[in-house]
C-alpha cells in the first residue's frame, strides 16, 4: 500500500505560479506512471498531466498544455506539478495519482479507471 501526500497548494493571483509536490511512502514509485488530476466544485475529476516511469514522456490536458509542467524525482520518490500563468478556471482541488499497475502507459493515465492510488488533495485557488 502506498500513501501519496500532496503539498504546495494555496491562493495565488491570476498570472501567478505554484509548484505542487507529491511525496510517496510505502512503495517505490519508479515502476509506475504518475499523474495529476483536479476537481472543481460541482464538476467531475479531470486529468491534468501524467509522466512516464523514467520521466522522459509526459502528457497534458489541452487546457494546461504550455502552462503546466509535470516532473518526477524517483530518488526522492516524488512527483511535481509546476503551474505557471494560472487562471481563475484552474481553481480546484489537485490530486496526485499513481497508476494501478506497472503496465499502465502515460497516455492511459488520463483515464481515472487506470489510477490505483490517490492522494488526499491540495486546494489551489486562483483569484482574478
Could you walk me through the main structural features you see in this protein, from its secondary elements to its overall organization?
With 128 residues, the protein is mainly β. It is built from no helices and eleven strands. It has strands at residues 3-7, 10-13, 18-25, 34-39, 46-51, 58-60, 68-73, 78-83, 92-99, 115-118, 122-127. Strands 2, 4, 5, 6, 9, 10 and 11 form a seven-stranded mixed β-sheet that branches. A hairpin with a 6-residue loop joins strand 5 (46-51) and strand 6. The chain is globular. The N and C termini lie far apart (40 Å).
**Ends apart, CA distance between termini:** 40 Å
Order of helices and strands: EEEEEEEEEEE
Annotation, overall tally of beta strands: 11
Shape: globular
Rg calc: 13 Å
Q: Please give the count of helices.
A: 0
Mean pLDDT: 96
Top keywords for this entry?
four-stranded antiparallel beta sheet, globular, 128 residues, mainly beta
Amino acid at each position: 500500500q502506498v500513501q501519496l501526500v500532496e503539498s504546495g497548494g494555496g491562493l495565488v493571483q491570476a498570472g501567478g505560479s505554484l509548484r505542487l509536490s507529491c511525496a510517496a511512502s510505502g512503495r517505490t514509485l519508479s515502476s509506475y506512471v504518475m499523474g495529476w488530476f483536479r476537481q472543481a466544485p460541482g464538476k467531475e475529476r479531470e486529468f491534468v498531466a501524467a509522466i512516464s516511469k523514467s520521466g522522459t514522456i509526459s502528457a497534458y490536458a489541452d487546457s494546461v498544455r504550455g502552462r503546466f509542467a509535470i516532473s518526477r524525482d524517483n530518488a526522492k520518490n516524488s512527483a511535481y506539478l509546476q503551474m505557471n500563468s494560472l487562471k481563475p478556471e484552474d481553481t480546484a482541488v489537485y490530486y496526485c495519482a499513481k497508476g494501478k499497475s506497472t503496465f499502465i502507459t502515460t497516455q492511459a493515465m488520463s483515464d481515472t479507471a487506470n489510477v490505483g492510488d490517490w492522494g488526499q488533495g491540495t486546494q489551489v485557488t486562483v483569484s482574478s
